[in-house]
Amino acid sequence: MIEHSFIFLDGIGEKTERDLWKQGILSWNDFLSVSTISNFGYQRKRIYEESLQYFSHELQRMNEKPFAEFIKPKDHWRLFKRFRKYAICLDIETNGLPLDAGGETTVVGLYDGNNVKQFVKGRNLSEDALFEELSQHKLLITFFGSSFDIPFLKRQFRSLPLDLPHFDLCFSARRVGMTGGLKKIETDLGLVREKNISGLSGYDAVLLWKEWCHGNQTSLNTLLEYNRADTVNLMDIANIVYEMLLENTGFQQYRENSLS
DNA sequence: TAACGACTTTAAGGCTGAAT
DNA sequence: ATTCAGCCTTAAAGTCGTTA
Q1: pLDDT tens readout for residues A222-254
Q2: CATH 3.30.420.10 fits A81-244, yes or no
Q3: Residue A238 and residue A250: Cα distance in Å, rounded?
Q4: Which of A53, A89, A166, A202 is the most buried (most CB within 10 A)?
Q5: A221: left (phi > 0), else alpha (psi -120 to 50), else beta?
Q6: Nearest CA to A191 among A173, A204, A208?
Q7: How far is CA A260 from the centre of its chain?
Q8: Is any atom of nucleic acid chain B found less than 7 Å from the CB of residue A188?
Q9: pTM of this prediction?
Q10: Which nucleotides of chain B does any protein CB come within 7 A of?
């Protein structure tokens, strides 16, 4: 979808983008190959052309940085399809305390669409290990991560490359009419959890960690299973929410018109 | 070049979910 | 029940292009 988007250009909002599609200008290439566009002056079109050439070049290189910098967070979902190969679902568990009161990350779960990797405090969780994993990816997928997971990790591990484009499913889902927390949305979408972890919440994750610290071996296993389910389900939800957001733009109906 | 209309941008306030 | 950050909504202000 990103190469069909104009909404990140200064002075172009939802209406104007839709208007471009309506005129048959469905992609950056279309924009660059016509000489004039109604309602756009010469100067204005030239400025946009320069911008689109730049983004087009960076997209070919799969450089995610300019997109993270110049596209508003609420539009980052448009990068999902192009960057899916490099996407990483992330979910953390903590000991429940605020950072400045001794709060710490206990588990970090990462899922790239094929494999889950989990990092556990006191075992394999370290800034270096996270850095190594994150630096291989170009799009973050979280649920409410922009308010919780990402700021938390950033403050605890200063060097992590977390300034990636970020598809936050909490706000995206809300925009397509799905409200509530992750567990509620999973249920609404018919995604089912294993019996032993169904009904667990983020607070339970805190308690499980405490139990493990006091010597209960199975608590850690349960916590890891819980974290795994949270992390993996993000990808399913991302796929569904992406399609719904795409539908909402109206883009597809203009594409169909131009084909027929 | 002044006024108008359509749209975008900005700023403030409200809302939500995740955490204790 | 309370706290927090960030997104969304709303309304006001600003911009661009058109028209006379």
Answers
A1: 999 989 988 998 998 899 888 888 888 888 877
A2: yes
A3: 19
A4: A89
A5: alpha
A6: A173
A7: 34
A8: no
A9: 0.89
A10: 6-9, 16-20
